[in-house]
Amino acid sequence: MGGALVALWLASAVAAAIESIPLFPKLMQVVGLGYTVWFSSRHLLFKENRDELAAKIKELKRQVLGLNDDGKAPDPSGQLVLCQLELHSPSFVGGLRVHPLTIYSKK
Question: Domain named Cyanobacterial aminoacyl-tRNA synthetase CAAD: which ranges (predicted)?
């Protein structure tokens, strides 16, 4: 958890340093506007491009969610199945309550 706080602090410091450079924030706004115009003209202007983008998004969603071609989750038979979760007594770590989990599985 301490590493995450250090990373957050470092990212904040880098962002503040970039903001202090004259004209850099405006340059980034122009770059963002240019990318928005390019993306819109490339993917949103014509129907065939919109359909292509929709197909790419649908395929990505299918891959991320692990769905079959018919849009349904695969049958878990023969795969590792989580069948029981047991919560143990909570402990305190760094002022946060942590509930350790024991996971049992069967084939």
Answer: 3-66
CB of 105 within 8 A of CB of 80?
A: yes
Q: Which residue has the tokens 């065939």?
A: 48
In angstroms, the CA 17 to CA 43 distance is 34
Pairing of strands 91-93, 81-87: unpaired
User: Across-strand partners of 101?
Assistant: 87
Q: Decide the pairing of beta strands 101-106 and 91-93.
A: unpaired
Rounded Cα–Cα distance for residues 27 and 40 (Å): 20
Cα(70)–Cα(76) distance, rounded to whole angstroms?
16
What is the reported pLDDT for 87?
A: 47
Q: Where are the domains positioned within the chain?
A: 2-106
**Cα–Cα distance, 45 to 65 (Å, whole number):** 29
